[in-house]
Design brief:
The chain has 152 residues and is mainly α. The protein is built from 5 helices and 2 strands.
Length: 152
């Protein structure tokens, strides 16, 4: 029988797989794609996903090893600077690996601990983890739409 940590990591991996499938289809030219007057490009969304994953690892899971300057969260808008596909791919990989690493260290008891954040109030660690899974999947869906219908 799988541990709760293993089950949650499997859920995370499935959500991340959907994002990875998008990453495999994106070219450098696609990074600037937006939809109509929508504020965010594919490049911004990729950077944002990784920023938030790293923030989760650092702030929600308390990893002292994760260092992050969440530029997309700080800027709160697409500045048009996220156009280096290899750099974004590396950053995405780093974020996914870092979050996976800290999650894999959680004990069964850890998942029931309550944490409090300004963004989403008081939640158990398991409930908080659901937030990052849905955040990644939500933006992966946006990226898919931008990839298909967006224009640079």
């Amino acid at each position: 029988m799988k541990t709760r940590t293993r089950q949650l990591l499997d859920i995370w991996a499935e959500a991340r797989t959907r994002l990875q499938k998008q990453m495999d289809l994106i070219s450098s030219e696609d990074l600037g794609k937006k939809l109509g007057d929508a504020p965010n490009s594919i490049g911004f969304l990729l950077r944002h996903i990784a920023d938030v994953e790293l923030l989760f690892g650092k702030n929600v899971f308390g990893s002292p090893d994760i260092k992050v300057i969440a530029k997309t969260v700080i800027d709160k808008k697409d500045t048009g600077e996220w156009t280096d596909l290899p750099a974004l791919q590396r950053y995405m990989q780093e974020a996914g690996d870092a979050l996976c690493d800290i999650v894999s260290k959680q004990t069964e008891e850890d998942w029931e601990k309550e944490i409090h954040t300004q963004e989403f109030g008081t939640k158990t660690l398991a409930e908080a983890f659901a937030r990052i899974v849905s955040h990644t999947a939500y933006h992966a869906g946006q990226i898919a739409i931008l990839q298909k219908y967006g224009h640079a």
